[in-house]
Amino acid sequence: MTEQKNGAVKAKKKVSRSVLLGAAFLMATSSIGPGFLTQTTVFTQQLAASFAFVILISLLLDVFAQMNVWRIIAVSGLRGQEIANKVLPGLGVFLAIIIVIGGLAFNIGNVAGAGLGLNAMLGIDPITGAIISAAFAIFIFVFKEAGKAMDKVAQIAGFVMIILMLYVAFITSPPVGEAIANTFVPEKISIFAIVTLVGGTVGGYITFAGGHRLLDAGIKGVESLPEVTKSSVTGIVVTGVMRVALFLAVLGVVSQGLAIDPENPPASVFQLAAGDIGYRMFGVIMWAAAITSVVGAAYTSVSFIRSFSPVIEKYHNWIIILFILVSTVTFAFVGRPVNILLLVGALNALILPIALGTLLIAAYKKNIVGDYKHPLWLTISGGFVVVVMGYLGIMTLIEQIPLLFK
């Protein structure tokens, strides 16, 4: 009897560890989409070794944001939109609407990225590649145990991307000493680069990807906080490792004076570093980054409307599939609607301060978190992120709106 009990405890711990790692990788791989590859390449071209400082600051802001969001979701046992509705009636509905619209628009880009990845990897037509990739993503959610399948795909894709990026970083022989020095004393500072990276790694639906996954797996309550915190930090660390590896790979190419093709900067880096094999490797990384973002965007966006109706809750996997289908059909017949993506990109920058600010207020409401006491240092650091990203998000929105009418 004792042996059976011990076996059950071990099995539960194994499942819990797998879910925690899966949630961390879901958040990390959701943030590492086609845009991630391009942003990191372009900013490294512009800032060279000084981009290391941007990575450091953006990762610190990411940690403060994610630790706050994941903890408050776990303690309350509620999804982001449910917490927001308790803080201010209707706010959760507003949050759900902008996250679903943003997730759908960006998923068009993710599907396109998956098509381009298969094109670089195997020479398949991008639209055909996008359709094949969407079918793969849909297949995950056909399973009864879709959550476990999603965790595994995120973990495998994450490890593949890390290994390939580290390999390319190694063969380009970047000036590591210069990068380390600029991490703390940069020659150039770009506020725009910091805002873009923070918005890309914890903006929009990504803010809630890991926290909602843990909630769906039944990991919640004050007693689970040590595991939740560890999982959130793991997600940021994985994101950081990938960004640093890609940064060093690009820096190695730039420091050699090689010209990067502006039409497809990240593909150009891999091709310059390792020839035709490098270009194929880029295809693998692009596809892995895009497909995990397709899955993460669909899963998290739909998690924001699940609590609004018992019908949505019951058939949420099929709604996720519909979400992926709509993104794919839009790309196949319309392409990437640039103006919509511009506006949604600007709105995305505002989702983080609105969502994080709402959750910080919720952390001090007994009807939401009970007797839980939120650490003061997390409130202060979270509040700092809200103010900085709120101000910069509004500035970005003001800049982007005139572009829609050109």
Automatic annotation (TrEMBL):
Record key words, sorted? Membrane, Transmembrane, Transmembrane helix
Protein's name according to its UniProt entry: Divalent metal cation transporter
Q: Which Pfam families match?
A: Nramp (PF01566)
- Where can this protein be found? Membrane
Query: What GO MF terms are annotated?
Result: cadmium ion transmembrane transporter activity; manganese ion transmembrane transporter activity
Entry superkingdom = Bacteria
Q: How does it sit in the membrane?
A: Multi-pass membrane protein
Transmembrane ranges, per UniProt, are: 47-66, 87-108, 120-141, 153-171, 191-215, 236-259, 279-305, 317-334, 340-364, 376-398
Recorded GO cellular component terms are:
plasma membrane
> What processes in GO biological process is this protein linked to?
iron ion transmembrane transport
Give the source species. Domibacillus aminovorans
